[in-house]
Write a structure and sequence with these properties.
Low-confidence stretches: none
Largest sheet: 6 strands, parallel
Helix content: 25-40%
Order of helices and strands: EHEEEHHEHE
Oligomer: single chain
CATH topology: Rossmann fold
Length: about 150
Amino acid sequence: MAVLKSALILGASGLVGQNLLRLLLLDPRYESVTCLVRRPLGRQHYQDPDNKLRPVVIDFDNLDEYQGYFSVDHVYCCLGTTLKKAGDISAFRKVDFEYVHVAAQLARAQRAGGFVWISSVGANAKSKNYYLRVKGELENAIMRMPQLPNAAA
């Protein structure tokens, strides 16, 4: 019998995160799916026939306080916003760079089996476009992390 996997999702209420959550809850290879979220998930976000879901409402400004949740097989970081929703570039950078970078550090520290995050086509740390520059800077920062196996954007 195969060993069942555990997953952690950050950002399960967004477009990508909702779809990932739906897929993981229906995937027989996963026995547990923990979601770190800003606010409670509505039932419209998921169907959980096998009672795998463990949602945890957190303050992402204190993400390091939740490091124990990163001791899983797979960490999926679906955090992201837009410049318009964030309101300004510093708030955008906090979500799209800082939170994701801290999540990668915690995944590494807790020896998660893999870390996957959302980047962007055209991500480039030298881009004149702020959005693409932040995504490129994040890719570079995560890929330079030692001992973070199986990291993929």
